[in-house]
Amino acid sequence: MKIAFMGIRGIPASYSGFETFVEQTARRLVRRGHEVTVYNRSSFVPYRGKEYLGVRLVHLPTLATKHLDSIVHTFLCCIHAMFQKYNVVYICGVGNAPLAFILRIRKTKVIVNVDGADWKRDKWSRFARTYLRLCEPIATKSAHAVIADSKVIKKRYLDLFGINTLYIPYGANIRRYEGSDLLERFGLESRRYVLFVGRLVPENCAHTLIRAFKRVETDLKLVIVGDAPYSSGYKQSLIDSGGKNTVYTGYLFGEEYQEISSNAYLYVMASGVDGTRPVLLDQMAFGNAILTRNTPANMEVVGDSAMNFADINDEEDLAIKLQYLSDHAEEVIALRAAAEDRVKEKYSWERVTDKYELLYTDLQAGYPVNEIVRNLEEKIPSEPVRKTAAPVEITHSVEEALDHE
């Protein structure tokens, strides 16, 4: 089959979960004999080759602004794709969903990954939020199939629009990196820091983690990996509020990202945005102990392999759990093993690619979505979601915890 991906910044992956997903599945589809094309934003991806890991690359321009970057580029991709005779086009991002109608003119099969409730993100203006919310029902009409990367999103679309979306989560690769150059540059020691990775935007809640960490009595450092291309004021507020043991690295990619992830004492997922968080899976794959916000989407990913903190009164409970894990290294070691086992069991990229290959085949054959959903579940069944671990009853406050030391 001829398959194309659009709606991302491009590959080689260096930015977000969508880019990693496309790179990991595209390269595997090529190995299985398919012709795969990925559309890159020429203003973002420095790599200018026509091919990467067997995947054909098409570089197109865009308007590099927060609100127009994605949709302008995807529009140009759709125009180009109309003349390429693709069997299937995969569009990332619900905001690009209206553009799927362009591809249907040529009777191309179109898939849209809606990526959670994007309209809830604080970074968007009121107009942008309204637009993104309107795009949700449009996606159910413009695409031949809608992908939900979490069961929370799948249920939401069923409840709101009566649509049977296809649940296919992200994957992750178990890996380690042995270098120490980055640690030395930032004055860090292996297993002596708590890690946060993400864009520095309000909905990722780095501010909550920074405030909670300042309440914890520990020799550990807090490392904030990420940046804020469109939220410089928020980023500065984080820097101003951090304590002396808080380290800001900016974005890290490639070996530097692998090094910082391979040596953490603990990883904290502070965000509560709906949908699978690829970075959460990735940190589990590095064998990190996970402390995550207790939301349905996050708990769906980690099952009983992580400790969680309350979504309400989050700063207080996060501080309590941080203090507990700082004081109980044996618990952290157990959580590391549990996280890695969870990834091996449920989230291999080969399994994810198996599902997508079957989806593309069935879609090309003209099967209705409900039949495709049944076929996927019969041939590549989803692992049952484990019961959420009961909240850990530790103490009433950080202050009480310290009193008992």
TrEMBL record:
Q: Which residues form the DUF1972 domain?
A: 5-172
Q: Could you list this entry's UniProt keywords, alphabetically sorted.
A: Transferase
Entries under Gene3D superfamilies matching the protein: Glycogen Phosphorylase B
Q: Which Pfam families match?
A: DUF1972 (PF09314), Glyco_trans_1_4 (PF13692)
Keyword Transferase in record:
yes
The UniProt record lists the keyword Transcription = no
| Alphabetized GO MF terms | hexosyltransferase activity
InterPro entries the UniProt entry points to: DUF1972 (IPR015393), Glycosyltransferase_grp1 (IPR050194)
Q: Report the PANTHER family cross-referenced here.
A: SULFOQUINOVOSYL TRANSFERASE SQD2
Full protein name: Glycosyl transferase family 1
Source organism per entry reads candidate division LCP-89 bacterium B3_LCP
